[in-house]
Amino acid sequence: MNYPDTTKQGNHSSSRSAAAVVIDELRAAILHNRISGGERLRQDAIATQYGVSQMIVREAFKQLTAEGFLKAEPRRGVSVAILSAEEAWEVSQLRALMECQALRWAIPNMLRGDFVQCEQVLDELDASGSVDGKILLNARFHALLYAPAKRTRTLEIIDNLRMNFERYLRFTWEETHHLEQSQAEHRTILELCKMRDTERACDALRKHILATGDLLVDSLNDSQRA
Q: Which PANTHER family does this entry report, sorted A to Z (predicted)?
């Protein structure tokens, strides 16, 4: 789909909207592996594809580089970033720190409606027949857990870390039976939240995140040795 070149209107908000469209489209393409890791992106080709100016594409590249989806190198241009095993380990450690803190803030504010929504999402996750659907529902469950914390900046950071991690999660889930274990852990975490057992809930969440991280690190190490 092509989008109009809104930069010609001289409207800053329109220009930003066009950049946001390109950012969202490229991010989704990377997340769903429609653009492979290491693939180089040409600014002029992207501008033509989306019907926008190269200035807007530069803005999109800058944002996606900051988010960790793209890598910019002098004289080599921009390419889709490839997560190394070392980076995956670091991201999983950061996720554990940030998400456990968010849960710690969230538990005192949780209401019955929050628990009901979480349970509904877990039931949908059990019933989902596609890996992509399961990944979206997994993200939804975690977002619902942390939302009562009402810490906007923290939740934005968590979301960015999750998206970078999510690029590789589908391969981990397709190659292992970890999803079943992950679901059992989700339900344990939710039950501990209902009990307002903050320490045990945070400990269960930390182990849950790090276990997934360990699987991803092992998978990336195997692929790097191959």
A: TRANSCRIPTIONAL REGULATOR, GNTR FAMILY (PTHR43537), TRANSCRIPTIONAL REGULATORY PROTEIN (PTHR43537:SF41)
- In a domain, residue 52? The reply is yes
Domain count, the chain: 2
For residue range 151-200, list pLDDT tens digits in order. Answer: 999 999 999 888 878 777 766 666 666 778 889 999 999 999 999 999 99
Instruction: Look up the CATH number of the domain holding residue 181.
Output: 1.20.120.530
Tell me the whole-structure pTM to 2 decimals. 0.79
- The structure tokens listed for 49 are 């594809």
Domain assignment of residue 1, yes or no: no
Last residue of a domain, one of 14, 46, 80: 80
